[in-house]
Amino acid sequence: MAKALVDRAPVDKASADNAPTENAHLxxxxxxxxLSLRKTGFRLMLVFSLVIIVAIAVxxxxxIVVALGIGIWCLIMSxxxxxxxxxxxxxxxxxxxxxxxxxxxxxxxxxxxxxxxLPLMTIFPIVxxxxxxxxxxxxxxxxxxxxxxxxxxxxxxxxxxxLCITNVVVSILIYQLVSRLEAALIESNAKTIKLNHALAxxxxxSAAQAHFLATMSHEIRTPLNGILGLTDxxxxxxxxxxxxxxxxxxxxxxxxxxxxxxxxxxVSKLNAGKLSLESTPFDxxxxxxxxxxxxxxxxxxxxxxxxxxxxxxxxxxxxGDAVRLSQILNNLISNAIKFTQQGSVSLxxxxxxxxxxxxxxxxxxxxxxxxxxxxxxxxIFGAFTQANNSINRTHGGTGLGLQIVKSLVExxxxxxxxxxxxxxGSDFSFVLAxxxxxxxxxxxxxxxxxxxxxxxFVDQEIxxxxxxxxxxxxxxxNEINRVVAQSLLEDLGVTVTLASNGQEAITIAHQKTFDLIxxxxxxxxxxGAETAAALRDAGVTAPVVAFTASVVSDEIDKALSSxxxxxxxxxxxxxxxxxxxxxxxxx
Length: 587
What we know:
Blueprint: H1 2-59, H2 64-83, H3 88-110, H4 112-121, H5 123-128, H6 131-143, H7 157-235, H8 244-272, E1 280-283, H9 284-294, H10 296-301, E2 305-310, E3 317-320, H11 322-338, E4 344-354, E5 358-367, H12 389-395, H13 401-411, E6 416-421, E7 425-435, H14 439-445, H15 458-463, E8 471-475, H16 479-491, E9 495-499, H17 502-511, E10 516-519, H18 528-537, E11 544-548, H19 553-561, E12 566-569, H20 574-584
Parallel strand pairs: 2-4, 8-9, 8-10, 10-11, 11-12
Antiparallel strand pairs: 1-3, 4-5, 5-7, 6-7
Helix pairs in contact: 1-2, 1-7, 2-3, 3-4, 3-6, 4-7, 6-7, 7-8, 7-16, 8-13, 9-11, 11-13, 17-18, 18-19
């Protein structure tokens, strides 16, 4: 028995912790509904009082002064309650205190006429009062109909009986309807409040997740940049042939780790709806060929034939997002090679439809691998999902690749289809539409294909008199990153100056002119964005390029808005760095 009480204790505690929150939601909801109903009640009474005044003016009852006074009084009360909304509860009770004795008085002195209006009168205490005030006021006003026999004048007895029954039934119905409506509204509002609270918590959690991913991305990429950068530097030198294979394995492991990190970040962006797509001119054929050639060595190591087939009618010059297309194809091709032990992997590119403005291209990645069970094909595109539990043990992987493929293809307006049979392989296909420029547009737009972040400082840096040609300032608080950058840049033939923080960079930039400044974003004391802004304020016109391990778009946008000309991410790709130097230093 004691053990059972101990086992239940955490659950009871959780319920107790949640109770105050739920009670608060219910109280807030009840207050909101009560205010809303009271406001509606006074609006109804405003209309009702006008009707009463008109009816009294036409019928001219014996006690016209009192009756007209009641109508005017109701009009004044409703106007006051609507104008002074903070006093509406007190005004409602004041109305009830006066209305309860006045209603019997009007019936005794005027007979059936006021009694016939009592069903309408009962609406008001029911709507803008609550608890005992509501029940008592309703009972007094509705029960006044029974006082008609005390009226000294003549009246129709049968009409009076029917009116008594009608007033009581109508009053009870109104009471029940309003009470049920009030309860339903309170429950609905409480759920809405809880939902808004949950949404606020979810947004807070999403913001925390984004911050966590940004921080972890930077912290993981920083040492990864050192591993890949220094490995790349060592492999570019003369080393013993016995050491080279091990270094190449380290390099491939780092590249794999970087790809996994990119997958996790991409999934986070896709789920948050923050993954942006570009539409720029690119060579479709070259992009596809590059994707295939990248995996040729991997396929060769497994003795698998890697084939590429591109239809002759596919136009090479198109508009679209080459980076995301490459990411889709890379995921599909790497998956196909991973799960194919013998036979071949083929990428087939063919044109489905074409017009003067666009062409629809079908991409098919076909393998002769293990195949996927029919029952597992539906869930294969889910996050962290693989065909069965043994796959991760046999082949490894995060299970994110196909979800990224599906999300990217759908974001680009396509749909992924899968045909697979156990023991015979799989066929992943998707169709994407690419805009096709006409010849005139193609010729005119060709010189303008440089990224927009390549200006406005290029001309100034090239022609400034006395500038040291090929000089680069690297600003990074991490020593290994500075060593990697210096080694890679010196191999490219440029002179490198190092700074460990933003303030040191500003001091050095005042003393010497540089062709290019590579700036880390996350640094202590002064961030990269703050340093770039300070350099611009100080009149330094050399292009500043973010040299960062952060790949979160908000961080990069902030950097670009501070005066930076572009960005290059860590781990640094030597080819990408070479292109950057060619653009800013040797152009």
